Amino acid sequence: MIRGRRLCGAEEVPEGGGRDFHFSAGDAVRFVLVVRKHGVLRAYENSCPHLGTPLNFLPGRFFDRDGEHLLCATHGALFRIEDGLCISGPCLGRNLRPLAIHIENGAIILREAAS
C-alpha cells in the first residue's frame, strides 16, 4: 500500500468537473485541486504561478466556459488540463505544480513524498 492522504471517493469528481481540498501540512496549509477530463483524474497544487492565489473563486469550479482548459478566476490565465501549462495570461509558459494521485479502494489518494 502506498502512503498518502485520502481526498475523496473517485466518483465524487464528475466528468468535466473538479474538487478542491485544503488541509494542514506541518505549519502550512496545503491547497489541492483534482479534475476529471475524458475519464482521467489529474491533481495540481491549487495555486496560480502568477500570484499564488487559488484558481477557483467557487468550490469545484476550475474549467473555462468551453470546459477545455483550467481557468484562474483571479486574472483569467488558461492552463492545459493534461500538463498544467499556462497557454494564456500573465504566467504564460509556466506550469501548475502536478501532484501524484492514485485510486485505492475507490478513493483518490494524494501520495506523500518519501521521507
Task: Itemize the secondary structure elements and their pairings.
Elements: E1 4-9, E2 17-25, E3 28-37, E4 40-45, E5 69-71, E6 78-80, E7 86-88, E8 98-99, E9 101-104, E10 107-111
Antiparallel strand pairs: 1-10, 2-3, 3-4, 4-8, 5-6, 6-7, 9-10
Question: What do you see in this structure?
Answer:
The protein has a 4-stranded antiparallel sheet with strand order 2-3-4-8, with no helix packed on it. A 3-stranded antiparallel sheet has the order 1-10-9, with no helix packed on it. Strands 5-6-7 form a 3-stranded antiparallel sheet, with no helix packed on it. Helix content is 0%, strand content 44%. It has a single domain (4-111), classed as Rieske [2Fe-2S] iron-sulphur domain (Rieske Iron-sulfur Protein, 3-layer Sandwich). The radius of gyration is 14 Å and the shape is globular. It contains no helices and 10 strands. The mean pLDDT is 93. Strand 3 and strand 4 (40-45) form a beta hairpin. The protein has 115 residues and is an all-beta fold.
In CATH, the homologous superfamily goes by the name: Rieske [2Fe-2S] iron-sulphur domain
In the CATH scheme, the class would be: Mainly Beta
Structural class: mainly beta
Percent helix: under 10%
SS elements, strand count: 10
Total helix count? 0
What integer is the average pLDDT? 93
How far the N terminus sits from the C terminus, by CA atoms, comes to 16 Å
Whole-number count of domains: 1
Low-confidence stretches: none
Q: Mind summarizing the main beta sheet? A: 4 strands, antiparallel
In the CATH hierarchy, what is the architecture at level 2? 3-layer Sandwich
Q: Name the overall outline.
A: globular
Strand order of the largest sheet: 2-3-4-8
Rg over CA atoms: 14 Å
CATH topology: Rieske Iron-sulfur Protein
Spell out the helices and strands N to C. EEEEEEEEEE
Strand content: 35-45%
